[in-house]
Amino acid sequence: MKLLAIRIGSALAACATLSFPLLAQADSRQAYCRYFPNGARRATIAMPCVFSMNQGNVGIRWQDGVSDYFLLSRDRPHTYTDERGGTVYQQWSEDSKGTRVRIFKMQNGSIHIWGS
After folding, report:
1. CA separation for the pair 88, 9 (Å, rounded)
2. Left, alpha or beta for 83 (phi > 0: left; psi -120 to 50: alpha)?
3. Which bin fits 77, alpha (ψ -120 to 50), beta or left (φ > 0)?
4. Measured CA angle at 46 (ends 44, 24), to 5 deg
5. Element (H or E) spanning 40, and its range?
6. What confidence tens digit (pLDDT) does each residue in 33-90 have?
């Protein structure tokens, strides 16, 4: 009986270990991204992208293969740190058609995301 309990416990632990990566996967969706340098009225980069969020952290994978990652600040809402250690602020806006747009403002520009 004791051996059976050990085997069942080992099997449950193995199942939990195997399912953890599935639970930790990011929520991803197809989106459309534009990059605006500071002061620019027009985007210098515009293309489809994949927007991902996992436990508040953000990943943006542009169609050309470039990726941006923002780590959520635990003590400041809507504030992130980019890969270079810079501060990134998340905001929301609407475009001229009333579609909601997520905006990440960085030191040198901003990324606008439709469909995130």
Report:
1. 45
2. alpha
3. beta
4. 125
5. none
6. 999 999 999 999 999 999 999 999 999 999 999 999 999 999 999 999 999 999 999 9
Overall pTM > 0.70: yes
The span from the CA of 5 to the CA of 16, in Å, is 16
**Which residues lie across from 70 on neighbouring strands?**
58, 82
With a cut of 80, say whether residue 28 has pLDDT above it. Answer: yes
Residue pair 45/66 in contact (Cβ under 8 Å)? The answer is: no
User: E strand or H helix at 14, and its extent?
Assistant: helix 2-23
Note the pLDDT tens digit of each residue in 76-96. 999 999 999 999 999 999 999
Confidence of residue 116 (pLDDT cuts 50, 70, 90): confident
Q: What are the structural domains, with CATH classification, of the chain? A: 26-114 (2.30.29)
pLDDT of residue 69: 97
